[in-house]
Amino acid sequence: MSLFQFKRKKITDIERQIEENQQLVSAAENQLRKFKLEREFAIESQKQVILEAKAKLNELRDTRTLGVAVRSVDPKGQGKAIILALSAVLGLMAGTVLAFAAEFVSKARRQGLSQGF
Predict the structure, then answer these.
(1) Residue ranges covered by each domain of the chain
(2) Whole-angstrom Cα distance, residue 107 to residue 110?
(3) pLDDT digit string (tens) for 102-112?
(4) Run of H or E residues at 13
(5) Model-wide pTM > 0.85
(6) What is the C-alpha separation between 107 and 12, in angstroms, rounded?
(7) What is the residue-wise DSSP string for 33-51?
(8) Which CA distances in Å does 117 have to 74, 111, 112?
(9) Cα angle at 92 between 91 and 96, to 5 degrees?
(10) What is the pLDDT, as a whole number, of residue 101?
């Protein structure tokens, strides 16, 4: 291989590398443009959300109290006795269900062990 052919091959290799690098740069620039567009869209979306929130805040009006809050003389609602009675009944029912469940599990285990499971 002569010096001229060697240099020509080197130049060809360098030109090919330049083309490959230009393609990589072009692809990177395209990705950058796409990223910038997506970022701008996200920024505009956030600006819109902020504007909507500001509009809602502007719609709020000042409030004032019409009177001082006081405790009712005649309390309304369920009495303490009804709440305690209902709690006791529900507790007994839950305890009964748990007792039946425990007995069932116990019998199922005994029957499973006797059958070799």
Answers:
(1) 1-60, 80-117
(2) 5
(3) 999 999 888 87
(4) helix 3-59
(5) no
(6) 87
(7) HHHHHHHHHHHHHHHHHHH
(8) 64, 9, 5
(9) 115
(10) 96
Could you say which residues of the chain have pLDDT below 50?
none
Place of tokens 């010096």: 3
Look at residue 67 and give its three-state secondary structure.
coil
Rounded CA-CA distance 22/15 in Å is 10
92-111: b (≥16 Cβ within 10 Å) or e: eeeeeeeeeeeeeeeeeeee
The per-residue pLDDT for 116 is 66
What is the per-residue pLDDT for 77? 74
Query: Which amino acid, 99?
Result: A
Polymer length in residues for the chain: 117
Give CA–CA dist 40/60, Å, rounded.
31
Q: How far is CA 16 from CA 30, 42, 66, in A?
A: 21, 39, 84
Structure-token pair, residue 101: 């469940």
